[in-house]
Design goal:
- There is one protein chain.
- With 485 residues, the protein is of the alpha/beta class.
- The strands form five sheets. The chain has a 13-stranded parallel beta sheet with strand order 1-3-5-8-12-16-20-24-27-29-31-33-35. Strands 9, 10, 13, 14, 17, 18, 21, 22, 25, 28, 30, 32 and 34 form a 13-stranded parallel beta sheet that branches. It has a six-stranded parallel beta sheet with strand order 7-11-15-19-23-26, with no helix packed on it.
- It is rod-shaped and about 140 Å long.
Length: 485
Amino acid sequence: MEINELTEAERRVWRAFATGTAVDFRAGDDEDVAQGAQWGPERTVRASVLRALLLNGPQEPGEIAALKLAGARITGVLDLRYGATDFAVRLSHCHFHEVPELYGARFRQLNLSHSALPGLIAATLRVEGVLRLTDCRITGPVRLGGAHISGALFLERARLSAPDDPEPVLRLHHAEIGDDLWAPGMRADGQVQLDGAAVAGTVNLEGAHFHNPGATAISALRLETGSDLRMRFLRTQGRVDLRGSRIPARFDLTRAQLSNPDGTALRLSSCTVGELWLLKGVISGILNLRRAHLDVLYLDPEMLPAKVFLSDLTYTTLTPHEPAERRLPMLERDPRYEPHAYEQLTAAYRRIGDDYAARLVQLAKQRRLRTTRAWYGRVWGYVQDATVGYGFRPLRAAVWLLSLLAIGSIAYAVHHPRPLKASEAPHFNPVFYTLDLLLPVISFGQEDAFAPAGWYQYLAYGLIITGWILATTVVTGVTRNVSRQ
């Protein structure tokens, strides 16, 4: 392309390229780039001119060439498919009329901050440094699938939407980012897809808003990060799916508000996370933690939704320390009885030495198990619960024993049963006679020597039956408790 074929604005850009001089068409005017369609020819640059500069632009000895352009209206398609440029590119505060096509292109560094674009086609893009889309307004799909970015990807406060396109507004599936993915305050109307992406540093989505009601707002299946995943103050409408992801440090959802009332709001099944923070936020929808592996679970009981899936969830530490009564609703909100969930919570309490809370969890486990049994199993369960609390409340047995002993002793003290053999019968003692009836193993010689009559005989039968039930439940409970220890 000859310089005499260029407009005045394009000649200005052409001359500045060789020395890396910045060209700013804004002239101090901070006009919104969304109004770029109204800009005149004095701020208009053809995409073909930019392409010629990046692929074969002029250079001067001793100077570092670069394309640094701000406030321009870029017409036509910036087509750099499979192209490679060794120059830094900064096209900030620009308005693109057509979707840039950067499929398979290679850049040293690319900065499109504060620009307005109708979309971006950049799958398998290679950037040796940093890719900046800070404060961009993009009204079509951003396709960065399979991109390799050696530095960081910046999307702070970017606004992404694709009202006329059903595909995700941002596709970063199988992308590789050598540093951080930095996107606090980002807004996306549609799905953001991070499936299979690998980020060597931190993923920061603090204060971001994702809006895709009734569908998936964030799809990050098998996402791998090298450090934290920050979602503090996140707002979502739609499903957040991180199934199979690996986050070795902190996954922070403090004060996040996740909403998908008719389905799953947050899915972390099969995830491996160092620390999961669920504090002071709101989850409206299902929380799925099946098969997740967590080192530390920071959980605010008030953040739990009405339905939680906990099958095979494992964690080492549960914090902050709360009474068992505030933790048990988490287990009860799983529609299915999951014994492993109760064992996990018991282990967490025992690890910090709270044996009382651990016993309460085990008692709750037996009560939940009872609801899954046939009617006769439920009846026997109620008996064990009422008598000795399934072995976790052994003092109940003493209360029952003393109560029945008092009833029997008073009844038989008022009306002595007749002796079977008056000449051989020992002196009658109502207390030891009642103990003989209640204790199926121990004998004080009273039961075999006396025979009650009338309703006293039925009282004796009741004490014998009750004694056997009490003894059986005590043995069952103690055996269960000892075997667990």
